[in-house]
């Protein structure tokens, strides 16, 4: 059995048994999602990377306290989300606004740049209009890693609230993207 | 027939019941507006999914592991403590066990308990001879050493070689 075939539980057992290097398996496994989550809250790549690193270190230090009732990823994302929220409060740059109907201007030049980076920028612009909890809920939903119940654990929402918010946010995202790109990107 | 956005999203996610699914599929055949709405949702969803995930820098794992290495391994203390304690107890026990013998003197029997002729011990058995505990102490000593080696293996050697194995693979 290679190290990549080990389950999270087995890797955690190795770490708790004194093999600190095994932690790199978990880092490799969850760094993308953790970073994406942090980035969607903090909106800055450098800071998002610091937050994701910090979240992994916190997880490592508190691994013994991880009760294994939830998945390791759920626990890690909750740490990442809370760390990002704390960092955001310190920055005091982020204003927690709920969805509004303000349109995002689309210039002619952007209309001609429908490459990946641009698409991503538009999506992040659209996601920007969500509050932190909705943003993280939607991110986790699209990353398809966690169930709705696990997303509730990370965000602290009730299941019914999450469903309503997800539905509203997805609908809004579709409309915003449609408006933003005037149908062009949708035809790619 | 009006189909709500929630029903449409459930349909796109594949979470509709079979009857709902059939109903929407039937409507879709003739309703171009609904077809457009489904198209808008499903395409925007796929764009978001494909564009949302981002990756940190290439050396992210190395940076995290450097920080982990700088932290004193909190999960190693217990093993070392057990090992040190076991070593101390083995040394102490081996010293005491190899250095002493027991003198078992059963004279007190005749002193405190009235002699009963029927139960008098045969004269050929010398019960007042000192009983040498050497054999027992050796058994105990080797037993302790065996346990100590087991603990050493479990707490120090195995983690060390596993760690080395992980480093090389």
List keywords for this structure.
heterodimer, A: 188 residues, mainly alpha, 68% helix, 0% strand, globular, B: 169 residues, 7 helices, elongated
Mean pLDDT of chain B: 74
- Structural class of chain A comes to mainly alpha
The helix count of chain A comes to 9
User: What profile does the largest beta sheet of chain A have?
Assistant: none
Oligomer state equals heterodimer
The helicity of chain A comes to 55-70%
Distance between the termini of chain A: 42 Å
Largest sheet of chain B: none
User: Helix/strand/pairing class of chain B, anyone?
Assistant: mainly alpha
Beta-strand percentage range of chain B: under 5%
Biggest interface pair, residues each? A-B, 49 and 40 residues
Order of helices and strands of chain B: HHHHHHH
Helix share, percent of chain B = 55-70%
What are the segments of chain B in which pLDDT stays under 50 over at least 5 consecutive residues? none
How does this structure look, described?
The complex is a heterodimer of chains A (188) and B (169). Helices cover 68% and strands 0% of the residues of chain A. Chain A is mostly helical and 188 residues long. In chain A, helix 3 packs across helix 4 (72-91) and helix 4 runs parallel beside helix 8 (148-155). In chain B, helix 5 (77-99) packs antiparallel against helix 7. The model of chain B has no long low-confidence stretch (mean pLDDT 74). Chain B is mainly α and 169 residues long. The chains are: A mainly alpha (188), B mainly alpha (169).
């Amino acid at each position: 059995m290679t190290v990549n075939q080990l389950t999270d539980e087995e890797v955690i057992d190795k770490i708790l048994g004194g093999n600190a290097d095994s932690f790199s398996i978990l880092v490799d496994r969850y760094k993308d999602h953790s970073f994406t989550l942090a980035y969607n809250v903090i909106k800055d790549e450098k800071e998002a990377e610091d937050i994701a690193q910090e979240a992994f270190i916190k997880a490592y230090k508190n691994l013994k306290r991880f009760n294994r009732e939830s998945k390791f990823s759920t626990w890690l994302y909750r740490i990442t989300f809370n760390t990002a929220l704390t960092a955001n409060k310190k920055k005091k740059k982020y204003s927690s606004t709920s969805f509004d109907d303000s349109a995002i201007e689309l210039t002619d030049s952007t209309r001609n740049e429908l490459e990946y980076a641009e698409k991503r920028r538009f999506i992040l612009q659209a996601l920007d209009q969500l509050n932190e909890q909705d943003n993280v809920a939607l991110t986790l939903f699209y990353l398809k890693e966690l169930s709705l119940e696990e997303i509730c654990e990370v965000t602290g929402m009730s299941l019914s609230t999450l469903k309503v918010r997800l539905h509203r946010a997805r609908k809004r995202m579709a409309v915003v993207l449609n408006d933003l790109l005037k149908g062009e990107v949708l035809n790619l | 027939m009006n189909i709500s956005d929630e029903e449409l999203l459930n349909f796109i996610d594949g979470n509709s019941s079979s009857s709902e699914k059939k109903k929407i599929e039937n409507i879709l055949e003739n309703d171009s507006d609904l077809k457009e709405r489904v198209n808008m949702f499903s395409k925007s969803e796929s764009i978001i999914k494909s564009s949302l995930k981002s990756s940190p820098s290439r050396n992210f794992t190395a940076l995290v592991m450097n920080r982990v290495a700088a932290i004193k391994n909190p999960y190693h203390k217990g093993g070392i403590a057990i090992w040190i304690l076991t070593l101390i107890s083995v040394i102490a026990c081996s010293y005491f066990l190899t250095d002493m013998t027991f003198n078992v003197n059963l004279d007190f029997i005749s002193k405190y308990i009235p002699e009963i002729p029927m139960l008098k011990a045969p004269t050929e058995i010398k019960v007042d001879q000192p009983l040498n505990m050497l054999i027992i102490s050796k058994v105990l000593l080797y037993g302790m050493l065996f346990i100590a080696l087991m603990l050493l293996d479990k707490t120090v050697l195995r983690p060390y070689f596993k760690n080395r194995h992980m480093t090389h693979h």
